[in-house]
Amino acid sequence: MQLYLPIAELSLNLFMLVGLGGAVGFLSGLFGVGGGFLLTPMLIFSGIPAPVAVASVTGQVVAASTSGALSYWRRGGIDLKLALFLIVSGVCGAFLGVWTFGQLRSAGQLDLVISLGYLVFLGSIGTLMLIEAARSIIKHRQQGNAPPTKLPGKHNWIHGLPMRVRFKRSNLYVSIFPVILIGASIGFLGSLLGIGGGFILVPALIYLLRVPGSIVIGTSLLQVLAIMAATTILHAINSQTVDIVLAFTLMTGSVIGAQFGVSAGQYLRGDQLRALLAIIVLAVAVRFALSLLLTPSDPFSVAILTNLGGG
Amino acid sequence: MRYLLAVLLLLFATGTASAQRLVMSTSEPVVSISSNFAGDTITIFGTIEPELGRNPDQVTNNYNVVISIKGPAGTYVARKKTRQFGIWLNGEQEAFEGFPSYFSLVSSAPMDKIAEPQVLSVSGLAFDSTPHIRPVRRTQNTDMFAQELIRLMKKRGLYSLDEHGVQFLSDTFFSARIALPAHVPNGSYLANTYVFQDGKLIDNAPQRFMVRTVGFERFVANSAKDYSLLYGVVCVILAIFTGWLSGVVFRR
């Protein structure tokens, strides 16, 4: 059954879209990530224009993060003050990201920057995750039972920076500069690449700020939710490329898929999950690398600069 | 198709009454795009009447018909990827103004049998004829980029040439079916019918029709354009509601 997408101005198979949302939702439930980094490229590969794919996935990420954020909220797993700092800086980053998005789009380099951005971020994060997970799996094999991962020291150079603020819930006393920088970078990247950025934010909060594990997921989900909500509105105003039909179809599939992902995740160990996620992340990065490095089958491309006078 | 009878009646009624030689019409004045739109076919009918004062029996009916259907025009840019620093990125580009977003040519015979290329080109009956190729800045590569742009539009199914698409049902009555793909741009379309005889253009008649979204799809597309802030807010509320509902339903 074909479904007409009014903003993308093309028809795609409804079951394919719900299935795509479901598959990504399954993975996001399994790994506890938003899944935007998988969904956006898949939509682009299935023929949806990159601007529409990026902007519509932001809407889908809002839905995917909401149920998770709510359940952490009930359990008290959110540091509201830290989330507020991250959100305010993140929205500023998102403003910059959406503006850059528009500039790159008219310069004809949006696709390139999206490809390069995915390649760099997915490539580096995927490699780091794979190394970390492999070490952990090897340790597990050798010792039979892995000891809880201990973070080296409570403080690093970041904790020596000035203008410190106390975050009670996270038991942190840290300079606001790294917090603002992390928030703004995630907002910028998320709006530019159509990803929630949870898979960058969580390691950044853990390894750079030393946010405790019980707080980090909920706080990151809340930040992603707020930033993606703001980004959706910014894209709607700035580029008018948010396709509500596409976004709703994807989110319906993904919230259902996520339930199965969560149950499936209980049968796998944490390090195995991380290794699997790392492989998927790397596969997407390789796909982008190939599109940049291999001689394109068609070196020419066409884009429309002005909106047609629609009736 | 329910228009068919009405159109036929109308054609014969007006055709006999006026001195105009060519009368044509489209099957649908508005092509509606709804949620299950997967492309559509429109039919164009026409009749060629002999000139007044001439005996119909003496008329030699070696007419040829070419129909051009053009969608709303926009500024299109063709880009060429080149290898720089080891990666492929968009390098050279050329922009073309007033470039039709959809262009279909259907004829009753191969184009080269109907008229000389110059004759066709003057009437805009070639994809690369001068009226359609208006580069923003002309360079030495303009022609190459124009050809590539046309090739890409053909590949997307938005430009097409069908040299047997016009069928003569009698000596003077013809019809043509034109397929509009699912990703056809919205807007105002111009169907222009040209009648050739012995390699010369003897008459032409234009007819406009609209391709537009209807109902919910039209509402969505218009809201996104006219009330973009509200539209964005509604998207976010819908997303939060969907996320909340799934949390309630599945009790995570």
From TrEMBL, chain B:
Keywords: Membrane, Signal, Transmembrane, Transmembrane helix. Residues 1-19 form the signal peptide. InterPro entries: CHP02186-rel_TM (IPR019088). It comes from Maritalea myrionectae. This is Transmembrane protein. The chain crosses the membrane at residues 229-250.
